[in-house]
């Protein structure tokens, strides 16, 4: 079995199941793959250093080896806060109004990708499979190729891929996309993002796409495919049935005193549509005065990327909106929106999901969205809640038994909240049963097995071609 080298911006060191602040599904799935394949997970430590030395901090925890490097403050500013989170993230989420182009960001991005390449290169053995993650590291593969790495290399993009007409607004977009063609496998969350990528290759680079989605480029064959990510279903179900989840569920239920509850759980990010969600809820309260004191929205929104101005802005906007809506609809003994800027351990989160009659997942654009899947997995099968899901989340393509909404339409979301709150039990059950099956069948283990299989299949083909 080939060894796996996983490379991502940050590394998640394995923790015991159920540990406080235990890692998310992606980290669990990658760690289990690394354990099986005796692999290494490489990335940034999250720490700063005065001067970059390339020193590798190697650790072995719970059967997984991690290797991390520290970055300079300028690297963090230009690569992470800059090109990754002020240029590519907004652009990939269709927000060219928020996209900032700065030559220093581009240079910092290339410099850090080269630092990653230089540092990880000595760790790669001949038969290893290399699996790179996300928009932070698009050119890494081509830098490794320049250094003579011939291994099979795959890239998985966790975000959407934007339409060509938006992407061409990025200076040097050709160079960025061409660098991605150094990978052997390029994975996207959905057929939609894959289609946009292939459209770019055809229109902007004049490449032919084979009927099987394969691309011939400079004598190499590249597979571009959709691999929809999922949650670690078994781990999440187990957590949802734990004593910790029960306790969180019971406490929350007691605190709402018989009112129905809607829940949102999102990193505090403008792509998640939180402002529009709050306005829709406010519209629902205004249009249904009889319901107004009977329903609570719990929004958990841990802060994220706080060094970036657009994130400070969204935080201020939401604080203002929450104050405004609560001021208009609260009573002495009742506040309609509980807006919480902190994170909770996963098992408690599972209890919160179970306590909510409605899961409100309304991003304006999202690569996949795992919260939608977690909400479904946490429900009681005999009396499940209803999932309201944005049509613009990648998850909508797999979860059409949810109530799909256009998050920009305040009226539509408001009416859908009413529909969800009054949905008969039989319909809730039948929708939930189908959703649960899809979440179970398309879990994160299936996702990484599919990706690694395609990456490895190419290695076999390459090997037999060399043998011939
Ligand atoms: C990117 C893509 C894609 C949130 N609050 C708490 C908490 N969370 C966890 C959730 C969920 C995860 O964070 C968020 O995942 P999402 O998929 O919803 O969104 P992104 O963070 O934007 O992730 C996305 C994903 O990558 C995977 O490919 O689906 O489209 O944007 O697991 O539960 N976890 C805990 N406490 C919290 O308060 N423990």
From TrEMBL:
<comment type="subunit">
    <text>Homotetramer.</text>
</comment>
<protein>
    <recommendedName>
        <fullName>Trehalose-6-phosphate synthase</fullName>
        <ecNumber>2.4.1.15</ecNumber>
    </recommendedName>
</protein>
<dbReference type="GO" id="GO:0003825">
    <property type="term" value="F:alpha,alpha-trehalose-phosphate synthase (UDP-forming) activity"/>
</dbReference>
<comment type="function">
    <text>Probably involved in the osmoprotection via the biosynthesis of trehalose. Catalyzes the transfer of glucose from UDP-alpha-D-glucose (UDP-Glc) to D-glucose 6-phosphate (Glc-6-P) to form trehalose-6-phosphate. Acts with retention of the anomeric configuration of the UDP-sugar donor.</text>
</comment>
<dbReference type="InterPro" id="IPR012766">
    <property type="entry name" value="Trehalose_OtsA"/>
</dbReference>
<comment type="pathway">
    <text>Glycan biosynthesis; trehalose biosynthesis.</text>
</comment>
<dbReference type="InterPro" id="IPR001830">
    <property type="entry name" value="Glyco_trans_20"/>
</dbReference>
<keyword id="KW-0328">Glycosyltransferase</keyword>
<comment type="similarity">
    <text>Belongs to the glycosyltransferase 20 family.</text>
</comment>
<dbReference type="Pfam" id="PF00982">
    <property type="entry name" value="Glyco_transf_20"/>
</dbReference>
<keyword id="KW-0808">Transferase</keyword>
